[in-house]
Specification:
Distance between the termini: 27 Å
Order of helices and strands: EEEEEHEEEEEEEEEEE
Helix content: under 10%
Radius of gyration: 16 Å
């Protein structure tokens, strides 16, 4: 409902991550909690909050400078400041500057987190089911970005080719 926000601030020297609760009708911050970084050696540049506002669960993305040059980041699944999983993620970076597009999406109601892992010439779609990393077994591996429809019935995939593919989700 927009009353809980995850804010990741990154400015080349400092990363700060906050879980905010806001009051929409007054446009004010009600509470601000600091989220611990799962790896102090990485610069965190993005986070995706789990869709249930009553759950403090996030996917956090961080990278070192060397990782950034290889279009790789670490994705951490964190709940209540405890790391449940971490895996390598793929993201687009424009000419290795600080424009980054983290690629990941929670699927509401299923608890699944979809993300791109590094692949040949792009990313490969995987998901985390709460315990394991699983390949989505799509016909393409050079994925640039993806998005599920709000109802979870369709998956839109763009490739580096460029190509646009729409899948019906079972």
């Amino acid at each position: 409902d927009g009353t809980k926000l995850l804010v990741v601030h990154y400015d080349n020297t400092l990363t700060e991550i906050y879980d905010l609760e806001i009051e929409l009708n007054r446009n004010t911050v009600v509470s601000q909690n600091t989220v611990d970084k799962p790896d102090e050696d990485l610069n965190f540049f993005a986070g995706i909050r789990y869709p249930d506002k009553n759950t403090s669960k996030y996917a956090l993305m961080g990278a070192s400078e060397k990782m950034s040059q290889n279009l790789v980041c670490k994705v951490f699944i964190v709940q209540d400041n405890k790391t449940f999983a971490s895996f390598d993620g793929y993201y687009m970076s424009k000419e290795y500057d600080f424009y980054k597009r983290p690629v990941g999406q929670w699927i509401p109601g299923k608890g699944l987190f979809y993300y791109l892992s590094p692949g040949q010439g792009g990313g490969k779609l995987n998901f985390w089911d709460g315990q394991n990393e699983i390949s989505a077994d799509l016909e393409v591996s050079n994925i640039r970005d993806f998005e599920f429809s709000l109802d979870g019935q369709y998956l839109l995939v763009t490739t580096l080719s460029p190509e646009l593919i729409i899948y019906k989700v079972n």
